[in-house]
Amino acid sequence: MIERLLICNRGEIAVRIVRAARELGIHSIVAHSEADDDGLAVRLADQAICIGPAQASLSYLNVEAIIAAAARTQADAVHPGYGFLAESAELAAAVAEAGLCFIGPDAKTIARMGDKASARREASLVGVPIVPGSQPLDDDLDQAIRIAGEIGYPLLIKASAGGGGRGIRKVENAEELARQLPLARAEARAAFKDERVYLERAISHARHIEVQILADGERAVHLFERECSLQRRRQKILEEAPCAVLDEDSRQTLCASAVRLAEHIGYRGAGTLEYLFDEATGDFFFIEMNTRIQVEHPVTEMITGVDLVREMIEICAGRALGITQAEIQRRGWAIEMRINAEDPDHGFFPSPGRVERLTWPAGPGIRIDSALYPGYRIPPFYDSLAAKLIVHAEHRDAALARARRALDEFEIEGFATTAGLHRRLLDDPRVREARFDTQYLEAWLAGTTHEETLA
Predict the structure, then answer these.
(1) Residue 272: strand, helix, or coil
(2) Within 10 Å of residue 176's Cβ, how many Cβ atoms?
(3) SMART domains this protein is in (predicted)?
(4) How far apart are CA 75 and CA 67, in angstroms?
(5) Distance set, CA 345 to CA 220, 274, 349, 449 (Å)
(6) Does position 147 have pLDDT exceeding 70, yes or no?
(7) Which residues are CB-neighbours of 217 under 8 A, at least 6 positions away?
(8) Measured between alpha carbons, how far is 422 from 3 in angstroms, rounded to an integer?
């Protein structure tokens, strides 16, 4: 049983976890940097403790500081949220060594599935389709070129320890591979402290679909899929659930594969398995697993009614999975729009600033996950996510209409955001008709047509 939960994160996800903890009767403690001492999570939590300066490497990425904070506040559990150390086997191991409960899978599972090449091997063992690719490459260019030729171009060079869309480079031929491979290794080493990379065939016009699972180490259930194809530079912009182009047979096959893999690895907690889906052939391929709660988890909560954050806390505290697959029903349609403090009209340049005026949309089927409040100044040190505007309605057309209405009501002054971009995107005929893939948004932003991207 958890009584005191240390939350080593910030922004809206820290607020989300504080609220879940309160509903469970758990004392919430927010571990924050000096830059976040006026954050909403700090204000809402039962207790807060500063773990270092604004620089993330000295605070939110500092395992030693987090463990020390847990000891000073007498926490008996640690929730990492997403980003920062959420998929750090080192943090999970340190928490366990300190005799505390880590809200997530154990360090061994994180390491096993956080390594993309290892995750591909595990998927293959239980018959989950994977994109054709290689194991981590040796430091031998000739061998890499030979392997690339066997897989076929275009290819992606991917960091074995990568995630969140980072550490990926696309190459069209052997010359590009020779040029990009050392750069990819250096980038992987700098970003993930692990220079191993592998090759994977680039599926150019696939859709990005992911399956949410909950598991208790023995049994797993799925909570259906999310469509996350609208991305800019491999960063998701707008997500929805369910996916508009999956028929019921494909949905059941896809979701069953996620459950099979989760049970195979003895997964515990909330996790997401990501796939590429080829709409033309109906084939899907596993690409990676995120061993944490996802930014876009609210759309799943909206269509299933399951509180994922609360469930993961209870499961990691030792409770067996409390729901069966038959009890998880899908109702209606949900859309999440990420409101980032960026200026889309000026190259998505970061736009941190002070919230001078703020009006949230309201009414049926609208949810706001945010740490903003009037007078709050967004610090320039972290990612640009300012809010998530989520809508739910009985079907996709109604959800799109509700999303437009919500954006019309939303007002913020003090800095630029991506809200206007979402309003224009929702008016796009192809988005309305769900005719897009992972490359569509980039082409749309560049002013080219989807047909041109297919050429």
Answers:
(1) strand
(2) 17
(3) Biotin_carb_C
(4) 10
(5) 44, 31, 9, 19
(6) yes
(7) 266, 267, 268
(8) 41
Of 417, 423, 421, 425, give the one whose Cα is nearest residue 357: 417
Res 452: pLDDT: 52
| Of 63-67, 254-258, 344-348, the least confident | 344-348
Identity of the amino acid at 225: E
> What is the 3-class SS of 113-165, one letter each residue?
HHCHHHHHHHHHHCCCCECCECCCCCCCHHHHHHHHHHHCCCEEEEECCCCCC
Neighbours of 124 (CB within 10 A): 13
Locate tokens 């403690």: which residue?
29
Is the separation of the CB atoms in 183 and 169 below 8 Å? yes
**What domains sit in the chain, N to C, each tagged with a CATH number?**
4-86 (3.40.50.20), 133-201 (3.30.1490.20), 206-446 (3.30.470.20)
Contact 243, 300 (CB under 8 A): no
User: Around 247, how many Cα atoms within 13 Å sit in the side-chain half-sphere?
Assistant: 7
Give the tens place of pLDDT for each residue, 261-304: 999 999 999 999 999 999 888 999 999 999 999 999 999 999 99
Specify the pLDDT at position 35.
98
- 16, 169, 292, 338: the catalytic one is 292
pLDDT digits (tens, 9 = 90+) for 211-247: 999 999 999 999 999 999 999 988 999 999 999 999 9
- One-letter amino acid for residue 143 of the chain: Q
CB under 8 Å to 378, separation ≥6 — which residues? 341, 352, 353, 354, 355, 372, 386, 415
Q: How confident is the model at residue 191 (pLDDT cuts 50, 70, 90)?
A: confident
Choose among 306, 278, 275, 307: nearest CA to 289.
275
The two tokens of residue 117 are 């090449």
Q: Is residue 275 within 8 Å of residue 261, measured between CB atoms?
A: no
Q: Let me know if 310 is a catalytic residue.
A: no
Is residue 52 a contact partner of residue 33, using CB atoms and an 8 Å limit? yes
CB 381 within 8 A of CB 60: no
pTM of this structure: 0.93
